[in-house]
Amino acid sequence: MPVVNRIAEFAADMQGWRRHLHRHPELALDCHETAAFVVAQLRAFGVDEIHEGLATSGVVGIIRGRGPGPVTGLRADMDALPMDEATGADWASEVPGRMHACGHDGHVTMLLGAARYLAETRNFSGAVALIFQPAEEVIGGARIMVEEGLMERFDIGEVYAMHIDPFAELGAIRTAPGPVMAAVDDWQIVVKGEGGHAAYPASCRDPMPCALAIGQALQTIVARNVDPLATLVVSLTQVHGGSAMNIIPEEVTLAGTTRSFDPVLRDLAERRVREIAAGQAAAYGVAARVVYDRSYPPTLNHPEQTRFAVEVAREVTPQVVDDLPPEMGAEDFSYMLNARPGAFVFLGQGIGPGLHHPRFDFNDAAAPIGASYFARLIERRQPAG
């Protein structure tokens, strides 16, 4: 596995950075300590420019190469998840209720490793923009950075990112042109009636039967409204209602998520959620209010940039898959790919606990591979001289 020799030399340093980050997870836009750590490293590497405060706690570092040329963006997400860790590792989270269970500590480490190498060698033309982004898991920090003018401010022409993959062997890089991850929409249905004593239901308007009927009917959206060869997921994930066994509640709340690639199916799913809620509410004599939040768009890799990313990946590892089927997870890097051409790849770290699992941990052996991929991508895309 041809990891860049210089990067292999400081692999132990990368392990130290990663484990420090793992001990100190931060959530959403509040990644200030993580950002301060990133800034300290970038300064030590001799990065030319460091810009702080994008999307509240985001950081962009600029490294200039040898002579004029384009600017390529490399992105790593910084935020953790609101969950307790169960790895038992010596470097486990020191913050109760927070954990790096999606590998973002590793993503930051890999980009820092590439930054150190590129700042030392500068064997490229133009410049590289190192994008350290908060709030991938919620809110969409990528969207905020794009709306704040990230691409225009730093004249970024293309943008690339990677995500660690616990479902592939160590060193495998997998991607595909076109859709690689789905759009995500979140919705909530509040069914409101009139509560009262459970012994006297005739004096109430019970929202519970309507909520149960809505939950059942939602399952027909995919099963009976969509071509069976098409791809759509509508999942009811929460039902909340009631406070005691002898009380009919005033309201019951249902919530869930929709995943799609096709904008026509995305529209259909929203329309049917609203129609089902309204229709069942009318049938049961209660009211239903729908809040439907269209969140991250699908992650769509650009064909030319994906072909190039695959070429670079083959220089770093023999385990390359270039026809990865799309998956129903979502990723806010989609906003950056909507703003500029680029590609998103998955880097295998060996088979183990999945993402968002309390026993998930980034495999430090993957860090030099990912850093080498990022570094070679810049050297190949923007050759010096």
Describe this structure in words.
A hairpin with a 3-residue loop joins strand 1 and strand 2. The mean pLDDT is 98. The longest helix is centred in the C-terminal third of the chain and has 22 residues, at 263-284. The strands form four sheets. An eight-stranded mixed beta sheet has the order 1-2-4-3-5-16-6-15, with helices on both faces. The chain has helices spanning 5-9, 11-23, 32-45, 104-121, 141-147, 150-153, 207-218, 220-225, 263-284, 303-316, 333-339, 367-381, and strands at 49-54, 58-64, 71-77, 127-133, 158-165, 173-174, 178-181, 183-192, 196-197, 232-241, 247-248, 251-260, 287-294, 299-301, 320-321, 342-348. It is an alpha/beta fold and 385 residues long.
Helical fraction equals 25-40%
In the CATH hierarchy, what is the architecture of the largest domain at level 2? 3-Layer(aba) Sandwich
Global mean pLDDT: 98
CATH topology grouping of the largest domain: Aminopeptidase
Task: Please indicate the count of domains.
Answer: 2
